[in-house]
Automatic annotation (TrEMBL):
<protein>
    <recommendedName>
        <fullName>Ferredoxin</fullName>
    </recommendedName>
</protein>
<dbReference type="InterPro" id="IPR017900">
    <property type="entry name" value="4Fe4S_Fe_S_CS"/>
</dbReference>
<dbReference type="InterPro" id="IPR050294">
    <property type="entry name" value="RnfB_subfamily"/>
</dbReference>
<dbReference type="InterPro" id="IPR017896">
    <property type="entry name" value="4Fe4S_Fe-S-bd"/>
</dbReference>
<feature type="region of interest" description="Disordered">
    <location>
        <begin position="82"/>
        <end position="108"/>
    </location>
</feature>
<dbReference type="Pfam" id="PF11953">
    <property type="entry name" value="DUF3470"/>
</dbReference>
<dbReference type="Pfam" id="PF12838">
    <property type="entry name" value="Fer4_7"/>
</dbReference>
<keyword id="KW-0249">Electron transport</keyword>
<keyword id="KW-0408">Iron</keyword>
<dbReference type="GO" id="GO:0051539">
    <property type="term" value="F:4 iron, 4 sulfur cluster binding"/>
</dbReference>
<dbReference type="InterPro" id="IPR000813">
    <property type="entry name" value="7Fe_ferredoxin"/>
</dbReference>
<keyword id="KW-0004">4Fe-4S</keyword>
<keyword id="KW-0677">Repeat</keyword>
<feature type="domain" description="4Fe-4S ferredoxin-type">
    <location>
        <begin position="1"/>
        <end position="30"/>
    </location>
</feature>
<keyword id="KW-0479">Metal-binding</keyword>
<comment type="function">
    <text>Ferredoxins are iron-sulfur proteins that transfer electrons in a wide variety of metabolic reactions.</text>
</comment>
<keyword id="KW-0813">Transport</keyword>
Amino acid sequence: MTFVVTETCIRCKYTDCVDVCPTDAFREGPNFLVIDPDDCIDCTLCVPECPVDAIYAEDDVPADQRGFISLNAELGKRWKPIIDKKPAPPDADDWAKAKDKRGELDRG
């Protein structure tokens, strides 16, 4: 099993989670983070670090977010690793409250 970043992260891109990942499994896109399932060791350390509750165990991903399982796998192979925390975008708090953000995803 692996962990999955879901829609809530789009345009928020808080990076608190990457600091605690022992395998550097996070990948960074223009406005979203994903977890490479091949590098994730199911340690759960990232889950409580996410301020917007965007990270789920694969088996617990809500039904309306299940497409993010394959999206994490796909983009995890294309995007570069992120291993250090970065400042969140200036409007991250505003986007954290937004719903239906899939159309905002920049696959870069």
